[in-house]
Write a structure and sequence with these properties.
The complex is a heterodimer of chains A (about 190) and B (about 600). By secondary structure, chain A is an all-alpha fold. Chain A contains seven helices and one strand, in the order αβαααααα. Chain B has about 600 residues and is an alpha/beta fold. Chain B has 24 helices and 23 strands. Chain B starts with 8 loop residues before the first strand and ends with a helix. Classes of the chains: A mainly alpha (about 190), B alpha/beta (about 600). Chains A and B meet through helix 1, strand 1, helix 2 and helix 7 of A and helix 2 and strand 3 of B. Strand 1 of chain A pairs antiparallel with strand 3 of chain B.
Chain lengths: ~190, ~600
């Protein structure tokens, strides 16, 4: 059990802190400053490579985020109490009704709400990401003609990046909250 | 001319963003700079390899990994380097070159990963180690140790935590350790938050360069002005004549609202009044206005300065000299927001912020009954900004002199382009300027006007203007020939520090060696102190042995750290013709650098001594 928790924590830190917070969010922040109406940053290498590579790292990390969210229920929810906890000795009959009931109750409590929040935040990122990628791919396929028309796609693109960044910030908070809520629950159980 | 940049300089101490990369840029650092609008000026491989341009940076940023090696490869072991961080901080704080602003803010990470750089960790983030147990434990964050040390070594240095870690875990600790706040990384508005921190907590120069200087004393006063201005309440400015109180008042006037938006020409009115220049009757009539026939000769109604300043700021200079009758009327303005004209019994609503100034000790004026306690309290409701005299910010003299020279050249259009030669600059720096900045300005203007056809301003051009230099009060600190034959206790830690350092330099100079031997310094100071005590010129606090007192003080003084400051100052000593003055000036600067820390720590020594 302890090993599983450590593994979960290590993977959550790797994807949430090390990648999302330290790398992806600053890169999105920089991109926003590049796309600002009055350009604040100039970096042609980044401008060329980020929409094609850095931005799309989400698609590689999404599965990891999904795993962290789903595994949270298993590790911190009531199931573990029936596997190795105080309820593992209860009768099959009792377990048949007690386990689903405890799951329903847990889902309504802080742990369930934290998991729900994280799952919802992940979905928001997926949705914002898909919209942005579709826009980027369209823009790449049909380059702007020039003149005033050039500003409109830029504005639209920036607004989509803002949406994605906002969703990522919420995901970061929601994932961090899992550990806080989960460990608080464990402490309560051990008391 | 020394180049002054109004863009503040920040130091970022962070293992991820501070690490050097030998091939190519540090992309994480680039992204952070791109997000926070920081111009990387680190001058390491990573910085040189970067092609990123920040168009209007919020600040120039120097990055420091805080670990060794700065650029690691697979197989290297990364260790935290607290002394290295202190060294870098000191270079941009005490040991910086004149004219270079000190760190406006230090941004400090909390969690620093240590240990071996493995193939996996390197592949994930180049140069980053795999981490050791405890690195990411909030109780033992290395960043908190750094914060503690910086607080002890550089008490006035503003440090903010810049971390992606949860704030709540450490909020009590970083508050106790004196951080100015916590900037959570990865939030949506991090750049705006940094801008706000720089404004409220940073030691940033005047962006318009109307108040010229980069000395820590001046920047602290500017920060105080910004903080107090944000309250919108009345602010009191104190300082010797000529220190620039009206300039500061105008600076405060230019600060609009709590966000500290600054504008050169605020549309709100600014009315300046010299309280000492007018007779009491005239003063009241000018300040509050009068009705028709209020007194003989009042042929028409007139608005007073208070009403003219409605919606803006009223600057009252020399407020300590304000006549009693005027004080009563002003109290009504401050308390009720209402002005009553002479000859009327009806008040008019006004919304005025009063920025008052004095070079007097207002507490004493209150005791003497010259000014009311209530009025003084009202005038300083928003805060008191103490302006440093020029002799305490002699680092700023070259900048000020160059600035006044440039102004004088535009005023005296017939005069030649000219320069202040280094010898002259030394003369100007050596002088203690009892008339402060205003006197320096006058001296430069006069020198330009009287010598319109020379290319260089030399010491000879200032002889008639400056006359013999007056010794500053601070310069007398630490003199052995103070004429006190009676043993006297060491009353303050600042005095002790000055004695120790003066002793060291009287033994070693001239010339002062470039690289002081600390053991030898310690011996010299110990010998000197003992000699003073034996000669009955000094007595340590009762109940404490000389050796104990000295031993503990030595440790607390951390002379090894301060010595580099002294060394740096020593490099500028040829400026002083007179050896005694040389030691005195050095002493003064050293005292300034050390006294704050020592004051707090000596309390501990004395307490420990009493406990013995």
């Amino acid at each position: 059990m302890a090993q599983s928790l450590q593994d979960w924590r290590a993977r959550e830190v790797a994807v949430n802190h090390d990648w999302l917070k330290n790398r992806y969010l600053p890169a999105l922040g920089k991109w926003l400053n590049i796309l600002a109406p009055e350009r604040r940053v100039t970096d042609t290498i980044f401008e060329d490579s980020f929409p094609e590579h850095g931005l799309r790292e989400w698609s590689q990390k999404e599965g990891e985020v999904r795993w962290v969210v789903e595994k949270f229920g298993e590790l911190f929810g009531p199931e573990r109490l029936f596997e190795s906890g105080p309820l593992c000795g209860c009768s099959v009959d009792a377990r048949r009704w007690l386990e689903p009931l405890s799951l329903v109750l847990w889902a309504r409590g802080p742990g369930g709400r934290a998991q729900e929040r994280a799952a919802s935040a992940r979905e928001s990122v997926v949705s914002a990401y898909d919209r942005l990628i579709a826009f980027v791919d369209r823009a790449t396929a049909t380059p702007p003609i020039g003149g005033d028309d050039r500003d409109e796609p830029r504005r639209k693109g920036r607004s989509l990046v803002i949406d994605l960044r906002r969703a990522c910030v919420e995901l970061n908070h929601a994932l961090s909250n899992l550990w806080t809520v989960g460990t608080a629950g464990l402490r309560k159980d051990s008391q | 001319m020394s180049e002054v940049t109004a863009v503040p300089r920040v130091l970022v101490v962070d293992d991820l963003f501070g690490r050097d990369v030998l091939v190519g840029p540090n992309e994480d650092r680039e992204n952070l700079c791109g997000e926070l609008l920081l111009e990387d000026v680190t001058d390491d491989h990573a910085c040189r390899a970067s092609r990123q341009v920040i168009e209007r940076p919020l600040a120039q940023a120097m990055f420091c990994r805080g670990q060794l090696p700065a650029a690691g490869a697979t197989g290297d072991v990364v260790e935290n380097d607290l002394d290295g961080i202190v060294r870098v901080v000191r270079q941009g704080w005490l040991d910086r070159h004149p004219g270079v602003p000190p760190w406006a803010l230090v941004l400090l990470d909390l969690c620093f990963y240590t240990g071996r750089i493995t193939r996996d960790s390197h592949a994930s983030v180049p140069g980053m180690p795999e981490g050791r147990p405890g690195d990411d434990a909030s109780d033992t964050y290395f960043g908190l140790q750094v914060l503690q040390r910086l607080r002890r070594e550089f008490p006035e240095l503003p440090v903010a935590v810049l971390s992606s870690r949860p704030r709540d875990e450490v909020s009590r600790k970083y508050s106790e350790l004196g951080a100015v706040g916590f900037i959570p990384r990865g939030e949506t508005e991090t750049a705006d938050l940094l801008r706000d921190y720089l404004w409220r907590h940073g030691l940033t120069p005047d962006p318009a360069q109307r108040i010229v200087g980069t000395s820590i004393g001046l920047l602290l006063a500017l920060r105080a002005a910004r903080r107090y201005a944000a309250s919108g309440r009345h602010v009191l400015l104190t300082g010797e004549p000529g220190t620039g109180k009206e300039l500061f008042a105008r600076y405060i006037h230019g600060l609009e609202g709590p966000a500290g938006n600054w504008c050169l020409d605020s549309p709100r009115p600014f009315v300046a009044v010299d309280s000492g220049a007018l007779s009491p009757d005239l003063y009241a009539s000018m300040l509050f206005g009068h009705t028709r026939d209020a007194f003989t000769g009042a042929t028409r109604e007139r608005q007073g300065w208070v009403q003219l300043a409605d919606g803006g700021d009223l600057f009252l200079d020399e407020v300590g000299n304000m006549p009693t009758d005027v004080q009563i009327g002003l109290m009504r303005v401050l308390q009720e927001g209402e002005v009553v004209k002479l000859g009327s019994d009806k008040g008019t609503r006004v919304n005025v912020r009063v920025l008052s100034a004095t070079n007097q000790d207002l507490e004493r004026r209150v005791t003497e009954g010259k000014i009311g306690r209530d009025l003084v309290d009202r005038l300083r409701l928003g805060g008191t900004v103490a302006l440093p005299p020029l002799r305490q910010r002699s680092d700023d003299i070259p900048l000020l002199a160059e600035s006044f020279l440039a102004q004088a050249l535009t005023t005296y259009t017939h005069s030649r382009m000219r320069h202040i030669d280094p010898a002259t600059m030394k003369v100007l720096r050596d002088y203690d300027w009892p008339g402060n900045v205003r006197a320096l300005q006058t001296a430069i203007y006069q020198a330009v006007a009287e010598n319109s056809d020379v290319e260089f301003l030399s010491p000879v051009h200032f002889e008639a203007i400056l006359g013999p230099s007056r010794s500053s009060p601070a310069a007398s600190i630490g003199r052995e020939d103070r004429g006190a034959n009676e043993p006297r206790p060491i009353s303050s830690s600042g005095e002790l520090a000055s004695l120790l350092i003066a002793a060291l330099f009287s033994e070693l100079s001239p010339p002062v060696p470039g690289d002081l031997d600390f053991a030898a310094s310690k011996l010299l100071i110990r010998r000197h102190l003992s000699r003073l005590v034996q000669a009955g010129k000094l007595a340590v606090p009762s109940g404490v042995g000389v050796e104990d007192f000295f031993g503990e003080t030595w440790a607390l003084l951390r002379m090894d750290l301060r010595m580099s400051h002294v060394r740096w100052m020593a490099g500028r000593l040829p400026a002083f013709q007179n050896p005694a003055r040389r030691v005195n000036e050095l002493t003064r600067m050293a005292v300034e650098a050390t006294s704050i820390e020592i004051d707090s720590q000596l309390t501990g020594v004395k307490r420990a001594a009493r406990a013995k």
